[in-house]
Design goal:
With 184 residues, this protein is an alpha+beta fold. It is built from five helices and ten strands. Helix 2 links the parallel strand 4 and strand 5. The two termini are 17 Å apart. One of its GO terms (molecular function) is antioxidant activity.
Length: 184
């Protein structure tokens, strides 16, 4: 099911979490919250929207990380019902697209719930106080279009790093719904 992210709730205080990456290393949101902010991307492997932006996401996040802006990706889908999103497949997906950020498994789906993640991709741009300042899309490129794009996520994260606040005008990200367990 195709969904759009809601409008940014400026100043929303992001809850801390600790999750493991696909190699079993633990990462805490608070420890990754640097003095230039933190980007948290809810993504998965099977979503065609994530697949279409994965190369650009890897390139854009490499630029942000080189500028001192930390990045975490969280996979909150129920991979028991969507085996393509299993931790083993996450490792393959991350390698295929050259992800240099930690790709974390939200096994209990508690982080996705706490953040109100709606779809994949769903981007949360936090300032150094852990306050939400961006909840928009990666860029303005249409499906299959890559040249001449406006890198909205990069621009927003740079603004947050510099000023602590994000752009007032933001366009929602669009993607596949998070696959919640039936007990949710």
């Amino acid at each position: 099911m195709l969904l759009d992210t809601p409008i940014c709730d400026f100043g929303w205080k992001a809850p801390d979490f600790t999750l493991q990456d696909i190699d079993g290393n633990r990462f805490s949101m608070r420890e990754q919250l640097g003095d230039k902010g933190l980007l948290i991307a809810f993504i998965c492997n099977h979503c065609p929207y994530v697949q279409r932006i994965a190369e650009r996401l890897a390139q854009d996040t490499d630029l942000l990380m080189a500028e001192g802006i930390n990045v975490l990706a969280v996979m909150s889908n129920d991979y028991q019902s969507v085996p393509a999103d299993s931790p083993e497949k996450m490792k393959v997906f991350a390698k295929k697209y050259g992800f240099n950020f930690p790709y974390l498994v939200d096994e209990e789906q508690l982080v996705g719930q706490a953040y109100g993640a709606i779809c994949t991709p769903d981007f949360f741009g936090l300032n150094c106080q852990g306050e939400l300042q961006y909840r928009g899309r990666l860029d303005d490129a249409g499906m299959g279009q890559h040249s001449g794009r406006v890198a909205e996520l990069i621009n927003a994260m740079r603004m947050i790093a510099e000023t602590g606040v994000g752009p007032k005008e933001q366009h929602p990200s669009m993607g596949c719904s998070i696959k919640w367990r039936d007990t949710m």
